[in-house]
Amino acid sequence: MKKLYAFLLLGLSFSACQQQPAPLATDQVNTLVGNAGYVAATGQQPTASTNDDARVQAHLAYAERLLRHSPTAGLSPALAQRRAHVLDLLHTYWTAGVFPRNYDHPGERRPCFIDRDGRLCAVGFLVAQTVGRPVAERINKAHQYDLIADMRTPALAKWVQTSGLTKQECALIQPTYGYQAPVRVRKTWSR
């Protein structure tokens, strides 16, 4: 098991050195580990008919496990405590199972920081819970459908520095979401 974590961390370090982020795949829930969380949870690859929330939830549970087992020797005691708190919040988030929707990118899996219904992604939730929803909304305004690796906003950079996580670890957390057409509500008239 330790070899698996070391291998995954080595892969994360390698991909952090690449200049361009990996292109988004239409079938991968995370750009760094793909569908590894779903496979770990179910023993099989997801299919086109697999429930997207189940895929996201399995991925986030997997990411939490990886991060809890990652070395933190370089962190100050205050940052280590902050990291533990952030990971506890991540656990609360994924067990609740309320995830944003990708309403705007048909045929693509895309991250979505905050969707039009106000649902936050995992990293958005962590930001909102620790430094406030207005900070998450500022990040969303500039980067709603962007990968963490592509986000260049001071608000996110400052949060990452104080979270106990690295930007690469935030990218590990960040899932992508399959397209969901918005539901149109039909008004009914009664007399």
Describe what you observe in this structure.
There is one protein chain. The chain has 191 residues and is an all-alpha fold. Keywords: Signal.
Secondary structure: elements and pairs:
Layout: H1 2-17, H2 36-42, H3 52-68, H4 77-96, H5 122-131, H6 133-143, H7 154-163, H8 167-173
Descriptive tags:
191 residues, mainly alpha, 8 helices, globular, signal
What portion of residues belong to β-strands?
Answer: under 5%
Q: Mean pLDDT score, rounded?
A: 88
| Rg, Cα atoms, Å | 17 Å
Morphology: globular
Low-confidence parts, pLDDT < 50 over ≥5 residues? 4-10, 12-23
Number of helices: 8
Main sheet record: none
Extended strand count: 0
Q: Helix proportion of residues, in percent?
A: 40-55%
CA(first)-CA(last) distance:
66 Å
- Total discrete domains: 1
Order of helices and strands: HHHHHHHH
Determine the structural class based on helices, strands and strand pairing: mainly alpha
In brief:
The chain is an all-alpha fold and 191 residues long.
